[in-house]
Amino acid sequence: MKPFADTLREIIAHDGPITVERYMSLCLRQYYATRDPLGRTGDFTTAPEISQMFGELIGLWLMEIWHAMGRPSPCRLVELGPGRGTLMADLLRATQVLPDFKAAATVHLVETSPALRQRQQAALAASGFSLHWHDRLVDVPSGPVLLVANEFLDALPVRQFLATELGWCERLVGLDGERLIFGLRPEPEQGLGNPLRMGDVLEWPAASIDVMGELARRLQQDGGAALILDYGYWGPAYGDTLQALKQHIFVDPLAEPGEADLTTHVDFHRLAQAAVAGGARAHGIATQGDFLKALGIEARATSLKARATPAQAADIDQALARLTERGPTGMGELFKVLAVTDKGIASIPALPALSISS
Ligand code: SAH
């Protein structure tokens, strides 16, 4: 088979320079379809892969909401981009606190990668829940929803615009001989206003905004709640956050198309705005560290350690620190948590109501 980089060069030679959004989209499809990117041997590690505590606490959080909703049946338990299925497996174990949930719930995994669907099937087959796979959120059947998405939205493509004397010009990926290079569309994009500072980069996450809009529509129609966790910030902010990771090391995003993980930081303000514009209610945001502590991660670590060997106890402490601490090695501050619910849900555990104009 032809190497993906050659196919990409042919596309650009034929169509001319492509947008960063299309570049991300083509590379990510190739990347996720051809590997399991997670864990020590892969390119990056996520919170559920660090500790079972992450999924268990989210499972308990979801059960509080399901109970407060009046225990609807059927209930669609949805995960966007479930990776190896670890978060869902840990979460399902924790739902045993409400045994009725198993009879009420159907599990819906929104996943495009055949390789990862297989991993998820293997991780979840023994759970006893009824499992369904879909390519997109719109394909999940109607009914009250409980949804979780961890490190999913950072993997969706964004458009990038650079502030120039002419206005916001879209960043493109073109060819210099065989080499991929960044360029700019010469005509500015209309409708983005006038940039204030030359050199600023505006990122427009059209795909994430679509997902949030669809999510809000469903929540409003059928009821429910969604929890979004990812690395990112509360915008507006201007900067180029496109990054590529290979074997846990940052690499040039153009150097190895389809072979490195490409992501951007998530603007939670834009996501919340999209959800509110779609008719839903937003809650949060909190840092991952504060959220997990509010859910009782420290007590959970203590109780796991009571039954652990000294080596296991040290691992639990290390995982707790990694999930909750600030600083370069911790995920506690960089990662944020946003919840979105139907308007009938006025408050949810651990996240304050968010007042936001759409
Ligand atoms: N949530 C997991 C994995 C995060 S990696 C964890 O926390 O470990 C991103 C996941 O999203 C992968 O499962 C990937 O295959 C999936 N994915 C990426 N783009 C997607 C898309 N457009 N539609 C559906 N799934 C997608």
Give an overview of the whole structure.
The chain is of the alpha/beta class. It has a domain at 35-156 and 206-239 and 263-341: 3-Layer(aba) Sandwich (Rossmann fold). It is built from 12 helices and 16 strands. The protein has helices at 4-15, 20-33, 47-50, 52-68, 86-94, 100-104, 114-124, 206-222, 268-277, 288-294, 297-306, 310-324; strands at residues 18-19, 75-80, 105-110, 130-134, 145-150, 159-164, 167-176, 179-184, 201-204, 224-233, 243-246, 249-251, 261-263, 266-267, 281-287, 335-341. The strands form 3 sheets. Strands 2, 3, 4, 5, 10, 14, 15 and 16 form an 8-stranded mixed beta sheet that branches. Strands 1, 6, 7, 8 and 9 form a 5-stranded antiparallel beta sheet that branches. β7 (167-176) and β8 (179-184) form a beta hairpin. It is globular, with a radius of gyration of 21 Å. Residues 28, 32, 38, 46, 48-49, 81-83, 87, 110-113, 116, 150-152, 155-156 line the site of S-adenosyl-L-homocysteine.
Short characterization:
The protein is an alpha/beta fold and 358 residues long. It has twelve helices and 16 strands.
